[in-house]
Amino acid sequence: MAQQLIGFIGAGNMATSLAGGMVAKGIRPARIWMSDPSQDRLDEVAQLHRVHVTTDNRDVLNRVDVLVLAVKPQMMQQVCEDLRDLIADRQPLVISIAAGITVANLKTWLGETPVVRCMPNTPSLVQAGATGLFAADGVSDEQKTMAKDILGSVGLTFWFEEEKELDAVTAVSGSGPAYFFLLMESLIEAAKAQGLDAATARQMVLQTAWGSAQLAITSEVGPDVLRKQVTSPGGTTAAALNVFEEAGFREHVQAAVAAARERSEELAG
């Protein structure tokens, strides 16, 4: 990432995870600046990651080459418009990680500057994220690499050629953790209904989920093959999966993801 300075507007969980991920990958904390209205939050971040902190957004922008916008979507317009004159002067690479804020929105509020829009997910908080990225016109290959390096510090990154594809990313990986959490929650309740105590049920379900993900990630075959390997004809797993199939499990997953994408499109509009 050469020696560019990186700034964050907003010091929430995702921003601090990105900063921490970069530091863990060898980026010197002195190259990272972060602003937030909460001095207590900034003190916590400074102690944790040793990065520069300030309550002044303009101070950050005046110092950096790459600006990561990590504020709540409802605050984004005001934050951007307050920085518009400095953006015109400095022309930093702007990376937005705010859900539902389009490139058109950002350019309207910021003026012309290179923009990359990203859709990270909550596993990024533990460096296990999956992030979709879209680069607006005018973003150089070097700037794309910088964006990939920043978001790649907390997991895998995927570039998309069309911005509208981020709506599908939102529906799959952005909302996806909630789908898995719902399955875990349901399986824990089912285990308790079968007589397991709550603590044991929770630990067994979470370990099974973690182990299954690790097996799928490291295996040379796909989840369909792994599922068949666990499922003996006429066995216990087959009995359970038959219930899922008869209830239209696959169709429900398709419908759920489609509904999430439709809502993402509505919010972006």
TrEMBL record:
Annotated compartments: Cytoplasm
Residue positions binding NADPH: 57
GO biological process, one term: L-proline biosynthetic process
Alphabetized InterPro entries for the sequence: 6-PGluconate_DH-like_C_sf, NAD(P)-bd_dom_sf, P5C_Rdtase_cat_N, P5CR-like_CS, P5CR_dimer, Pyrroline-COOH_reductase
Pathway(s) annotated for this protein in UniProt: Amino-acid biosynthesis; L-proline biosynthesis; L-proline from L-glutamate 5-semialdehyde: step 1/1
An example Gene Ontology molecular-function term: pyrroline-5-carboxylate reductase activity
Any Pfam family the entry gives: F420_oxidored
EC number: 1.5.1.2
Record key words, sorted: Amino-acid biosynthesis, Cytoplasm, NADP, Oxidoreductase, Proline biosynthesis
Residues annotated as domain Pyrroline-5-carboxylate reductase dimerisation: 163-267
Residues that, per the record, bind NADP(+): 9-14, 70-73
GO cellular component, one term: cytoplasm
Cited function: Catalyzes the reduction of 1-pyrroline-5-carboxylate (PCA) to L-proline.
PANTHER family to which the protein is assigned, alphabetical: PYRROLINE-5-CARBOXYLATE REDUCTASE, PYRROLINE-5-CARBOXYLATE REDUCTASE 3
Family assignment from sequence similarity: Belongs to the pyrroline-5-carboxylate reductase family.
Protein name, entry field: Pyrroline-5-carboxylate reductase
Organism placement in taxonomy: Bacteria, Pseudomonadati, Pseudomonadota, Gammaproteobacteria, Oceanospirillales
Gene that this polypeptide is encoded by: proC
